[in-house]
Design goal:
Radius of gyration: 11 Å
CATH topology: Conserved Hypothetical Protein Mth637, Chain: A
Helix content: 10-25%
Largest sheet: 5 strands, mixed
Structural class: alpha+beta
CATH class: Alpha Beta
Number of strands: 5
Number of helices: 1
CATH superfamily: YggU-like
Strand content: 35-45%
CATH architecture: 2-Layer Sandwich
Shape: globular
Distance between the termini: 8 Å
Order of helices and strands: EEEHEE
Number of domains: 1
Strand order of the largest sheet: 2-3-1-5-4
């Protein structure tokens, strides 16, 4: 399953908002430096879907705010 994620790095709190069936907004505290925010988003999504982090892969948008992730359930 592919999902679209809009990331808000350096947020005051961490949260996930489901906008549509395959669209989410994710706020993380980490800075967008050396992949820190991307790793934080993967961890947050793993907690949200209750799956291991290894089942989530960043497909597109490594350096953009809008990203596409592959979720293996």
């Amino acid at each position: 399953m592919l999902i679209k994620v809009k990331v808000f790095p350096q947020a005051g709190q961490e949260q996930i908002v489901k906008k549509a069936e395959d669209s989410f907004e994710v706020w993380v505290k980490q800075k967008p430096v050396q992949g820190q925010a991307n790793r934080a988003v993967i961890s947050a999504l793993a907690d949200y879907f209750k799956i291991p982090r290894e089942n989530i892969k960043l497909i597109k948008g490594f350096k953009q705010r809008n990203k596409i992730f592959e979720i293996k359930v």
